[in-house]
């Protein structure tokens, strides 16, 4: 047992050195185990708070494989573009964000020729773009595909059953792939019933690796207050502001207000 533990420590140290040299970061143990599971070809589900470094686990497996490609499905196109910019400029990993407006055949030939290590899609693109269907039926390309990663995976179930039909079809697309491709689902909020639904709709392996971090935020609590004014007036928000604000006083501290979409 001691020998096995020592071997694991050496493995971790070697991996951390590779990651540090390329990304200048030191991973948490849970992040390393996510990376190991992906490299083992496992289906993976990660539930971790925002800001804990889930996205790092998307890219790092590429450091330990040759000629591998990853596909990532993102909720927001702006987030996908930010990912692509960071990967290209900061991390020096060839990446591209493919939107439904890009129908240039040249792009898809570039993808087939492994010009990009990371291809980022919106759900609408992978469901509604015929070129994507051709891509996932191309066996030489699919042999290089490491996994299908879905960011904010809870939206697949929550939005796919209401106003975003494309989200509900992602599981179908996964089934249509000509090769058995592992899937990686990541989110900051995945209740058990959503996890079970995702496992069913995506035919996730029984030996799926699930990493569930503590997402409790003790400094955040719920307070329910009856609205005094019509919702479209926004006057109810004045209760969050100090009653007496000096004209030349200091600026208020920044705060966020979330609205139901």
UniProtKB/TrEMBL annotation:
Q: Mention any Pfam family matching this sequence.
A: DEAD
Q: Where is the Helicase ATP-binding domain?
A: 35-208
Give the UniProt entry's GO cellular component terms.
Answer: chromosome; cytoplasm
**Keywords, A to Z?**
DNA-binding, Isomerase
**What GO biological process term is on the record, naming one?**
double-strand break repair via homologous recombination
Q: InterPro entries from the entry?
A: DEAD/DEAH_box_helicase_dom, Helicase_ATP-bd, P-loop_NTPase
Cross-referenced PANTHER family = ATP-DEPENDENT DNA HELICASE Q1 (PTHR13710:SF105), DNA HELICASE RECQ FAMILY MEMBER (PTHR13710)
Q: Which GO terms describe its molecular function?
A: 3'-5' DNA helicase activity; ATP binding; DNA binding; four-way junction helicase activity
EC number(s) of the enzyme?
5.6.2.4
Protein's recorded name: DNA 3'-5' helicase
| Substrates-to-products reaction catalysed | Couples ATP hydrolysis with the unwinding of duplex DNA by translocating in the 3'-5' direction
Look up keyword Ribonucleoprotein and say if it applies. no
The organism sits in which domain of life?
A: Eukaryota
